[in-house]
Write a structure and sequence with these properties.
Blueprint (H helix, E strand, L loop, with lengths): L2 E5 H7 L5 H14 L8 E2 L9 E5 L4 E6 L6 E9 H10 E5 L6 E5 H7 L12 H4 L5 H6 L4 H6 L6 H8 L4 H11 L4 H6 L15 H6 L1 H4 L2 E4 L2 H8 L2 H6 L4 H7 L8 E5 L5 H15 L6 E5 L2 H22 E5 H13 L4 E2 L2 H15 L5 H13 L6 H6 L11 H21 L1 E2 L1 H13 L8 E4 L7 H9 L8 E5 L23 E4 L1 E2 L4 H9 L20 E2 L7 E5 L2 H17 L7 E5 L2 H13 L4 E3 L11 E5 L8 E7 L19 H19 L2 E10 L4 H5 L5
Parallel strand pairs: 1-5, 9-15, 9-16, 10-11, 10-14, 12-13, 14-15, 17-18, 19-24, 20-22, 20-23, 21-22, 23-24
Antiparallel strand pairs: 1-8, 2-3, 3-4, 4-5, 6-7
Helix pairs in contact: 2-13, 8-9, 15-16, 16-17, 18-23, 19-22, 23-24, 26-27
C-alpha cells in the first residue's frame, strides 16, 4: 500500500493555507490509501531539476510537490504551494540522500548556483583550498558535500562567499563547510554529523531506508491515513517547535551520562527542544515509578513546556514528566515539611521592611545596595551568621566594604530578619534554601532525574534546591541555558552549588529559528555584554550562526505614541492579509503601559489580541502582546518591538546608578541589552522595531540607524 510522508516544510506551508484546503488534503491522503497514484494523479512537470519530482493537484490554485522515488512505495510530500510557485520550485530543487549521514536532503541548486560567481571572475584571495585547509574533493564527498556543490567551490574564495553559500545549503552540508573553514579536521567534522553517521556504504537511491534513520525521521512525519493527517494539520506549529535536528539528537538520546550535563547555546539553537527530548528519552528508559522533573524559572514557561511535551509524546509523556517552576517546588516542599502553606513576602513588603531595618540599625548604606548584598552574597552563599558574612567573598559586587561596614550591614540583616519572623513571611529564595535543607536530611530524593531549562536565570539558592531534589549519579541532571539571554540579576557557578559538569558540557551553535539577517543585527545588541558559561568560565558567540535566510529587520520612527500604535495595527493587518495567522504575530514592549497602548489600538481596530499576563497563554487566533520579560521562551513568525525609545529602553528604574555601584550599574545595563536581544530573537521571519522621539541608545549602537 502506498505511504505518504510529510516534510517538516509542509507544516510551515499549511499554516499559510486557507482552512478549506485542509479538507482537500485529507482527500489526498485517501487517494494514497487507495493506491490511486499509479494512475494519472501525479504529474511529471516538463521542466524539473530532478526526474523524481512530481506535482499533485489539490485544487485549482494549490499544488503539492511530491518526490516519487525510483523504487519503493513511499512518497514524500515536500511542499504545498500555489500553482506557479510549485512549478518554479521543481525547476530549482534536487532530492538526494546524503552519503555521509544517510539523511534525505533537498538542495535548491539553482539558488546555490546563482549565489556563486563564475570561477573566472576577479575575486580576492584566499582560494577555496586555503579556506578549507586543503581538504580534497574525495574527503568532502565522504562528508556529504554533493557533486553539484563541489563544482562550485573553486569560485568561492572568501569567507563571506563561503558563508553566503553555506546558508543556502541543507544544514548538514552548510555546517560541514563552515566547520572545515573554521579549522576543524575531517575527523572532528565527522564526529559532529550525528549518531547515524557511520563509515558504511549508504545506498543513495533507497529513500525508504533513509526514512528509517533518525537523521531523516526528525525531518518528516509519516501519515498513515486521513485521521492522522488531520491531527498533524491541527497543530503544525506545535510540531515544528518540537522537531529535533539530527546534530542535537546525539545529546538528547545518549543512553547514559555519568553525572550532570550542561548544554549551552545562543537563542534559537534548540536548547529547550533538546531538553524536552531528553525528558522523552528518560521517560522511555526509567521505570514508571521513577519520577522525572522538568523545571524552569518562570510559571508561564512551565505552561509552554507542558504543552510541548504533550505534542512531543502525547499525554503519556506529559503525564510522566512533572513540569513546575522552581518557586512552586520550594513552596510545596516547605509545606510538606512544616504542615502548612508558607506565607510569601512580596517585593513591596520586603522593600518596606528593609527601609525600616536600615532606620533601626543605623546602617548608612543605601537600600538598593543592601538588598542586592543580601541576595547576591548572603543568600547566594547560604550565610547564616555574622562571622560567616565577615569572611565571605563578594564576587561581582562593586564597592569595597570594610569590617565596620559589614558589621553595620549585618545589623540591618538581623533587624530585617526580626521583622520577618514577626510577620511569618519568607521570600521565595529563602524558601528554596529551607527546602534544600529539608531535602538534605532525606536519604530518598523526590526525583530520579531533574531537567533544568533557562538555567542562566536561576539563583544559587534555587540551584541548591535543585541539587537536593535528586541523588547524585548517572543521568541525574540535564541543564540547558544561555548567559547571553540572562534577564534577571542571578549568576551561579554550578560547581560551587555541588553540580559538577566537567567532561559533560556541550555547546549548540546553529540557530534554527531566526534568519541570519535578523540574528546578525540582534547579536550586535550584545556588544559589551560579558557572558559566562554557567560554571565560572567565559562564554562567546564565536561560531553562532543561522542557516536560514530572509529579510532584514525593519526600523520605523513614529511621530507620536498614537502614530506608533496606528502603524503597528496596519503592520498586523498587512501580515494577516498575506497569510500570517494572528497567533503567529507578537508585539513586545519594555513596559506594561506600552503593551496596554498597543492592546487598546488593536481592540479599536477589531483585531483579536491576548495580553500575556497571569495565566493567559498564546492562542492561534489572537495576536500575542506582552512585556519583553513575558516573551521569554516563546517564538513567532513575526515580532514587533514597540516603544524602543530613549527613556524606555533601557528602562531608567532598572538601571543601578553608577555612583551607587559601578559593577551593578554595568550589569544592569547588560541585563537590559540581553532583554532586548531576547525579545528580538523571538522572531522567525519578520522583525519590526519602532520608537517615538529619539531611538534607544542600544539601537544606535548597532549602527543600523542614525
Amino acid at each position: 500500500m502506498a505511504r505518504l510522508v510529510v516534510s517538516k516544510d509542509v507544516l510551515n506551508d499549511i499554516s499559510r493555507l486557507p482552512n478549506n484546503v485542509a479538507n482537500k488534503l485529507t482527500d489526498l491522503i485517501g487517494k494514497f490509501d487507495q493506491q490511486a497514484f499509479a494512475g494519472g494523479h501525479l504529474e511529471s512537470p516538463k521542466a524539473t531539476r530532478d526526474p523524481r519530482a512530481r506535482t499533485v493537484r489539490i485544487d485549482n490554485f494549490y499544488r503539492g510537490v511530491v518526490m516519487a522515488p525510483d523504487k519503493g512505495d513511499t512518497y514524500f510530500l515536500m511542499r504545498i504551494m500555489n500553482h506557479d510557485d510549485a512549478y518554479a520550485w521543481v525547476e530549482r530543487n534536487i532530492f538526494r540522500i546524503n552519503p555521509a549521514t544517510g539523511g534525505i536532503e533537498v538542495v535548491d541548486i539553482a539558488h546555490v548556483e546563482a549565489s556563486v560567481e563564475p570561477a573566472g571572475a576577479s575575486t580576492p584571495e584566499p582560494s577555496p583550498t586555503a579556506l578549507l585547509h586543503g581538504i580534497s574533493d574525495k574527503t568532502l564527498t565522504e562528508l556529504g558535500i554533493s557533486p553539484e556543490v563541489l563544482m562550485l567551490l573553486p569560485s568561492v574564495r572568501t569567507e563571506d562567499q563561503m558563508l553566503a553559500l553555506a546558508v543556502l545549503l541543507p544544514l548538514e552540508q552548510g555546517d560541514v563547510l563552515l566547520q572545515l573553514m573554521g579549522g576543524a579536521t575531517p575527523e572532528e567534522v565527522w564526529g559532529q554529523l550525528g549518531v547515524e553517521a557511520e563509515r558504511t556504504t549508504i545506498d543513495t537511491d533507497d529513500f525508504e531506508a533513509a526514512l528509517e534513520r533518525e537523521v531523516t525521521s526528525a525531518q518528516f512525519v509519516a501519515v498513515s491515513g486521513p485521521e492522522e493527517l488531520l491531527e498533524v494539520l491541527s497543530k503544525p506549529f506545535d510540531l515544528w517547535r518540537v522537531f529535533l535536528h539530527p546534530t542535537q539528537r546525539r545529546i538528547a538520546y545518549r543512553p547514559t551520562y555519568s553525572g550532570p550535563v550542561r548544554v549551552t547555546g545562543g537563542a534559537g539553537t534548540g536548547k529547550t527542544v533538546v531538553a524536552m527530548h531528553r525528558a522523552k528519552a528518560l521517560a522511555e528508559s526509567l521505570d514508571a515509578e521513577q519520577p522525572i522533573l522538568f523545571t524552569t524559572f518562570t510559571k508561564n514557561l512551565a505552561g509552554v513546556i507542558r504543552r510541548n511535551l504533550e505534542v512531543l509524546g502525547g499525554k503519556a509523556l506529559s503525564g510522566r514528566v512533572k513540569v513546575q517552576n522552581v518557586d512552586r517546588i520550594a513552596s510545596q516542599i516547605v509545606r510538606d515539611a512544616e504542615g502548612q502553606n508558607p506565607r510569601v513576602l512580596m517585593p513591596e513588603d520586603e522593600k518596606r521592611m528593609w527601609t525600616k531595618a536600615l532606620d533601626e540599625s543605623g546602617c548608612e548604606l543605601g537600600l538598593d545596595f543592601v538588598q542586592r548584598e543580601w541576595v547576591d552574597v548572603i543568600l547566594s552563599q547560604a550565610i547564616s551568621t555574622r562571622d560567616e558574612y565577615l569572611r565571605a567573598a563578594r564576587p561581582g559586587r562593586g564597592g569595597r566594604l570594610d569590617r565596620r561596614q559589614r558589621m553595620q550591614l549585618w545589623l540591618a540583616v538581623e533587624a530585617f530578619g526580626a521583622q520577618q519572623r514577626e510577620s511569618g513571611k519568607r521570600t521565595f529564595l529563602q524558601l528554596s534554601l529551607e527546602a534544600a535543607g529539608y531535602l538534605g536530611a532525606r536519604s530518598v530524593k523526590p526525583y530520579a532525574a531533574v531537567i533544568v531549562d533557562e538555567a542562566q536565570d536561576l539563583h544559587p539558592a534555587q540551584w541548591r534546591l535543585l541539587r537536593a531534589l535528586v541523588a547524585e549519579g548517572p543521568n541525574d541532571m540535564f541543564i540547558v541555558g544561555d548567559a547571553y539571554q540572562r534577564i534577571y540579576a542571578n549568576r551561579t557557578t554550578l560547581s560551587k552549588v555541588g553540580i559538577k559538569v566537567t567532561g559533560r558540557s556541550y555547546k549548540l551553535k546553529i540557530n534554527y529559528r531566526t534568519t541570519q539577517q535578523i540574528l546578525h543585527w540582534a547579536v550586535a545588541l550584545l556588544h559589551g555584554v560579558e557572558a559566562d558559561d554557567l560554571d565560572g568560565g567565559g562564554e562567546s558567540l564565536t561560531g553562532y550562526r543561522s542557516l536560514l535566510t530572509g529579510g532584514p529587520p525593519v526600523f520605523a520612527r513614529a511621530s507620536s505614541g498614537a502614530d506608533e500604535t496606528k502603524q503597528l495595527v496596519a503592520w498586523v493587518k498587512e501580515l494577516h492579509e498575506h497569510g500570517y495567522a494572528l497567533g503567529e504575530i507578537a508585539v513586545a514592549a519594555r513596559t506594561r503601559a506600552s503593551v496596554d497602548a498597543v492592546a487598546a489600538a488593536l481592540a479599536s481596530a477589531g483585531v483579536a489580541a491576548v495580553v500575556l499576563e497571569g495565566e493567559a497563554e498564546t492562542t492561534a487566533d489572537s495576536v500575542s502582546l506582552g512585556t519583553m520579560h513575558r516573551m521569554k521562551g516563546l517564538e513567532f513568525r513575526a515580532v514587533a518591538i514597540s516603544d524602543c525609545s530613549r527613556g524606555s529602553v533601557p528602562l531608567p528604574v532598572a538601571i543601578v546608578p553608577e555612583n551607587v555601584d559601578a559593577k551593578a550599574h554595568e550589569r544592569s545595563m547588560e541585563l537590559e541589552r540581553s532583554l532586548l536581544f531576547v525579545a528580538c530573537t523571538r522572531a522567525r521571519e519578520a522583525l519590526r522595531i519602532s520608537w517615538t522621539g529619539q531611538p534607544s541608545e542600544f539601537l544606535v549602537a548597532t549602527g543600523a540607524i542614525g
